[in-house]
Design a protein that fits this description.
By secondary structure, the protein is an alpha/beta fold. The chain contains eight helices and five strands. The chain has helices at 13-24, 31-41, 44-55, 61-71, 90-102, 117-133, 144-168, 180-192, and strands spanning 2-6, 28-30, 81-84, 109-114, 171-175. Helix 2 (31-41) crosses helix 3 (44-55) and helix 4 (61-71) runs parallel beside helix 5 (90-102). The structure holds adenosine monophosphate. Adenosine monophosphate binds at residues 9, 31-32, 35, 52-53, 56-59, 64, 85-86, 88, 92, 141, 150.
């Protein structure tokens, strides 16, 4: 099964993706995680991405499409994957379509978590506080300034991605304001139906 989780920053994509990993045994491919790993390792991609990520802006389509193309070639992604944080632009969505069509593959589901914008900043603040409590390091972009840039990037560049998939009939929208378990259940129904 190949699926995409769409939704603004703080919508709960990471949490739900992890649950889908556990349930379906397919990997979560988070471009954010891959880019953060590249930044940490100081790779050429990481060096290019670091500043733009810290500011909350989007890394270029070329870079991100390249890392996804490599990642879906890996053995664990052969039986399927959950894309989290990708595609974030219509250009990336088109590139993904070409990539999959070239392999004779298609997307099974595009699931969008729909959330109330005012709740998002609170969620990001909670995520930072929980990370601190657990002794972890808060993401460089989990602060109100970068968050605003991330939300603006989402509205300008990623919201059209949902319209792109609605056109092909593969999009399902889920109320992401429900409690976490209820969102998980709704995602399960959307995948089953
Ligand atoms: P995330 O963990 O998905 O919130 O991503 C963190 C940051 O990584 C984003 O704010 C962007 O700077 C960058 N990023 C992650 N995925 C993408 C993508 N598909 N396209 C462009 N930039 C991305």
């Amino acid at each position: 099964m190949r699926l995409i989780l769409l939704g603004p920053p703080g919508a709960g994509k990471g949490t739900q993706a992890q649950r889908l990993v556990d349930k379906h045994g397919i990997p979560q491919l988070s471009t954010g995680d891959m880019l953060r790993a590249a930044v940490k390792a100081g790779t050429p991609v990481g060096l290019k991405a670091k500043a733009v990520m810290e500011s909350g802006g989007l890394v270029s389509d070329d870079i991100v499409v390249g890392i996804v193309a490599d990642r879906i070639e890996e053995a664990d992604a052969k039986k399927g994957f959950i894309l989290d944080g990708f595609p974030r632009t219509v250009g990336q969505a088109e590139a993904l379509d070409r990539m999959l069509a070239g392999k004779g593959l298609k997307l099974d589901h595009v699931l969008e978590l729909v959330v109330d914008e005012t709740a998002l900043l609170k969620r990001i603040e909670n995520r930072a506080a929980e990370t601190v409590k657990a002794g972890g390091t808060v993401r460089a972009d989990d602060n109100p300034e970068a968050f605003k840039v991330r939300l603006d990037a989402y509205k300008a560049q990623t919201a059209p991605v949902s319209a792109y998939y609605a056109k092909t009939g593969v999009l399902k929208q889920i109320d992401g304001m429900q409690p976490i378990d209820a969102v998980t259940a709704a995602l399960g129904r959307a995948i089953a139906g």
